[in-house]
Amino acid sequence: MAAQSKLLQFTPRNSTLFTAAGVAAYFLYRNAIAKPQKRKKAQEEEVKVVIAQHGQKKEKAMVNAVFFNQLSRILKVLIPGLFTKEAVYLFIVAVSLVCRTYADVWMIQNGTSIESSIIGRDAEQFKVLLFKFIYAMPAISVVNNLLKYGLNMLKVRFRMRLSKHMYDKYLNGFTFYKMSNLDNRISNADQLLTQDTEKFCDSVAELYSNLSKPILDVILYTVKLAGAIGIMGPTYMLLYLAASGLILTRLRRPVGRMTVTEQKLEGEYRYVNSRLITNSEEIAFYQGNIREKFIITGTFNKLIEHLNNFIFFRTQMGFIDNIIAKYVATVVGYLVVSRPFLNLAHPRHQNSTHSELLEDYFKSGRMLVKMAEAIGRIVLAGRELTRLAGFTARVTDLLKVLDDLNGGRYERTMVSGDSGRNSSTNLKSMALKPGSGNVIIQDHIIKFDKVPLVTPNGDVLIEELSFEVRSGQNVLICGPNGCGKSSLFRILGELWPLFGGTMTKPEKGKLFYVPQRPYMAVGTLRDQVIYPDNHAEQLRKGVKDQELADILEKVQLGHILEREGGWEAVQDWMDVLSGGEKQRIAMARLFYHKPQFAILDECTSAVSVDVEGFMYNHSREVGITLFTVSHRKSLWKHHEYYLKMDGRGYYEFMPITEDTAEFGS
């Protein structure tokens, strides 16, 4: 009785039909993972700290009106018009499906006639029908391979369209930066842009094939069978299709949610691995391999546990799918096809011979089997539809965030009122609105007029910052870590939104940033110097390679042209160049682009003082005004103003006089 009561409690909770063996297997499975789950609880808590979820809502994905609305919007991207390559491949697939269905009907009729001629010992008819089949084989093979070709090309075209659409949004302005630094709704954009996009496009194309062919089969076989066994036979099969489809769609609802969770966990697993590669040197110095292994294995175990649950659920659903969509459908088919033959009063076969009964039965039976298979495929296509709902939800989320970021809207979990700042500062930050400031584009001037220095988290570093710098007036920025130096540059570069006031600055192309650890692009040695320009843009500007060589000589890098094999040499420049060489390459970029203003963020820390002095003198000669962040005392003489922040919300902007220069030196 105790066992029975447990079973009664178990069954409604899972809403799934189990055999006795299935129930036993389920309990064994649960017992096998219960204890390991307890042991891994602390490990999972550690992983949650590393993979911050930022209060994201639990994803829901199911086949409903929301799903079809989302899918229709994405399909407008995949198929932008009737006169496109995607529409052509859709037409090719559709024609191939129609031809294949008619080929199936012809093969049933021809095959039945061949068997009838064998049973009737008609050698001449047998030869004629057999040669018909042989002649038809090349055409049927062409149809099958044309269908595969159209389907594969459709997947590629869908992926190309969707990827281009997403990257146009993702790489529009600074959207890629905002997604990683200002908005926390998408934590694994690389996963969504690559794997999820590919799986979504494959799923859409496969669903088009897996639904259109069975639907066409059902329509065609219904017409054929209506004349053979009466209209009620196909009607019963279609009623069974509707009933079984509703039951299975209800039972498959968790598949969409579990697909979303699977892709999210895959993204987290990729993230912790890429994080290890990115920070490998720092981790090695700290000897943090054991801790990183703990984090990675914890993330991997979460993924494996979910995959185990997903596989087990799909096994249960596979059992039910086979029963309902295949075997019961076959039973219904036998009942339907037997009616005209077992009913002696049926008018169709009252005067038929045994041979005619046999041929009619085989023909009707095979058509009904094909119809039952088509109905089964339509029912099972619901499984793929539910899985597609998961991918659709993921892709829709990414598109929504991209649209928001391109429209200047972002969402981020704000820091609490006592997380390192006083409560009054945070109350003031609550009244500030991102994007409420004004940006004025004007050449040869940078001016902040009552601009609050606010982080995306809402921390107010400086309530109102006001200063003005014109071309030719170099400014030295100083202050402790966390005082707002980097925040100032991010606002100036329009990476962060303006929370108020008015900022006057040149357009983006006339403001250049040189970081402490310069970015080395994928490409040739020439690409490193002219980045982000390409060779064609260099030629349009009228800059020759000899001028680039002169720039390298000025920053004492002329020797790398010969060392690396010329301008067309391709290397992993992040590893090939030393720290000082990379900083001098960054200065060469500055002299190539010749902007009105440049921000130097500790960018000469790995070069000698004499090289540094030459760089500052040459920048003044070519008309580049510098904002410098550096702790080197030797740099004070190259600047006219200093901007000092104390980290407590106060600042001073003053000209550098003999007294301040002596103080700085």
Automatic annotation (TrEMBL):
<keyword id="KW-0812">Transmembrane</keyword>
<dbReference type="GO" id="GO:0005524">
    <property type="term" value="F:ATP binding"/>
</dbReference>
<feature type="transmembrane region" description="Helical">
    <location>
        <begin position="218"/>
        <end position="248"/>
    </location>
</feature>
<keyword id="KW-0067">ATP-binding</keyword>
<feature type="transmembrane region" description="Helical">
    <location>
        <begin position="129"/>
        <end position="147"/>
    </location>
</feature>
<dbReference type="GO" id="GO:0140359">
    <property type="term" value="F:ABC-type transporter activity"/>
</dbReference>
<dbReference type="GO" id="GO:0006635">
    <property type="term" value="P:fatty acid beta-oxidation"/>
</dbReference>
<keyword id="KW-0547">Nucleotide-binding</keyword>
<dbReference type="InterPro" id="IPR003593">
    <property type="entry name" value="AAA+_ATPase"/>
</dbReference>
<dbReference type="InterPro" id="IPR005283">
    <property type="entry name" value="FA_transporter"/>
</dbReference>
<feature type="transmembrane region" description="Helical">
    <location>
        <begin position="15"/>
        <end position="33"/>
    </location>
</feature>
<feature type="transmembrane region" description="Helical">
    <location>
        <begin position="89"/>
        <end position="108"/>
    </location>
</feature>
<dbReference type="GO" id="GO:0015910">
    <property type="term" value="P:long-chain fatty acid import into peroxisome"/>
</dbReference>
<dbReference type="InterPro" id="IPR017871">
    <property type="entry name" value="ABC_transporter-like_CS"/>
</dbReference>
<dbReference type="GO" id="GO:0005778">
    <property type="term" value="C:peroxisomal membrane"/>
</dbReference>
<dbReference type="InterPro" id="IPR050835">
    <property type="entry name" value="ABC_transporter_sub-D"/>
</dbReference>
<dbReference type="GO" id="GO:0007031">
    <property type="term" value="P:peroxisome organization"/>
</dbReference>
<dbReference type="GO" id="GO:0042760">
    <property type="term" value="P:very long-chain fatty acid catabolic process"/>
</dbReference>
<dbReference type="Pfam" id="PF00005">
    <property type="entry name" value="ABC_tran"/>
</dbReference>
<dbReference type="Pfam" id="PF06472">
    <property type="entry name" value="ABC_membrane_2"/>
</dbReference>
<dbReference type="InterPro" id="IPR003439">
    <property type="entry name" value="ABC_transporter-like_ATP-bd"/>
</dbReference>
<keyword id="KW-0325">Glycoprotein</keyword>
<feature type="domain" description="ABC transporter">
    <location>
        <begin position="446"/>
        <end position="665"/>
    </location>
</feature>
<keyword id="KW-1133">Transmembrane helix</keyword>
<keyword id="KW-0813">Transport</keyword>
<comment type="similarity">
    <text>Belongs to the ABC transporter superfamily. ABCD family. Peroxisomal fatty acyl CoA transporter (TC 3.A.1.203) subfamily.</text>
</comment>
<dbReference type="GO" id="GO:0016887">
    <property type="term" value="F:ATP hydrolysis activity"/>
</dbReference>
<dbReference type="InterPro" id="IPR036640">
    <property type="entry name" value="ABC1_TM_sf"/>
</dbReference>
<protein>
    <recommendedName>
        <fullName>ABC transporter domain-containing protein</fullName>
    </recommendedName>
</protein>
<keyword id="KW-0576">Peroxisome</keyword>
<dbReference type="GO" id="GO:0005324">
    <property type="term" value="F:long-chain fatty acid transmembrane transporter activity"/>
</dbReference>
<dbReference type="InterPro" id="IPR027417">
    <property type="entry name" value="P-loop_NTPase"/>
</dbReference>
<feature type="domain" description="ABC transmembrane type-1">
    <location>
        <begin position="114"/>
        <end position="325"/>
    </location>
</feature>
<keyword id="KW-0472">Membrane</keyword>
<dbReference type="InterPro" id="IPR011527">
    <property type="entry name" value="ABC1_TM_dom"/>
</dbReference>
